[in-house]
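queue> pop job 88
queue> type: inverse folding (structure -> sequence)
queue> payload:
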């Protein structure tokens, strides 16, 4: 079954939230109209930062009914991917650059009952997905090099979204396209117009003066992109 939504999805990233008040930050996401919660899992090896692990995902699961989108920036994702589904993740994505056995890891996510995603760093070409088609439910295109929130959007990723959308159309494939990194009011409409179904936003939501208003503004921009 396709994950592709009728209206574009916004996934605020908890990486930019206040970790002492995660429950309240979840309430804020729910009240803003955003439909997905993005959870950045970093291991200090695949990326130079360490963030959230399984116990936090278990706690988040108890605190919201929104889908949890766990972006695993870890080496050897096969060791942990299914555990994230068991901990309550609905979507789990793994980096192509981190795994020589992607089919196996994607299958482990699906077997555990999750939606399986492949993540591509800005420098990894979309052609590498061709022989994995059918094994994933969504593709997450990074528009920054992963590791930190608040980095600048790499503009050439827009064309990558267009090319991935074209490939999807040509082949009649149902996978969802998500974009992560430096997303904000300046590029949200254009990204949706290019073919993105789901946008991750960290700083653009949580570092705004009024995060709820910022998320609502992004959702409006995304709808504008869909209508254009
Ligand atoms: C970066 C993470 C992102 C990050 C996005 O490695 O994968 O999800 O939280 O943050 P912003 O939207 O601030 O670039
Ligand atoms: Zn992310």
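queue> result:
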């Amino acid at each position: 079954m396709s994950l592709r939504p009728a209206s574009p999805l916004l996934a605020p990233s908890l990486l930019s939230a206040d970790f002492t008040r995660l429950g309240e930050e979840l309430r804020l996401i729910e009240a803003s109209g955003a439909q997905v919660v993005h959870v950045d899992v970093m291991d200090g090896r695949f990326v130079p930062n360490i963030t959230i692990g399984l116990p936090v995902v278990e706690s988040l699961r108890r605190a919201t009914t929104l889908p949890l989108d766990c972006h695993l920036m870890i080496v050897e994702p096969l060791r942990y991917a299914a555990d994230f589904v068991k901990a309550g993740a609905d979507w789990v994505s793994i980096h192509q650059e981190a795994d020589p056995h992607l089919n196996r890891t994607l299958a482990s996510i699906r077997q555990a009952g999750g939606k399986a995603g492949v993540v591509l760093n800005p420098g990894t070409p979309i052609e590498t997905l061709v022989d994995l088609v059918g094994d994933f439910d969504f593709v997450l295109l990074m528009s920054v090099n992963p590791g930190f929130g608040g980095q600048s959007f790499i503009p050439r990723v827009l064309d990558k979204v267009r090319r991935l959308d074209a490939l999807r159309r040509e082949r009649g494939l149902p996978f969802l396209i998500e974009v992560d990194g430096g997303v904000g009011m300046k590029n949200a409409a254009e990204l949706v117009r290019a073919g993105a179904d789901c946008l991750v936003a960290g700083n653009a939501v949580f570092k705004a003066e009024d995060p709820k208003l910022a998320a609502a503004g992004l959702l409006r921009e995304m709808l504008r992109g869909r209508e254009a």
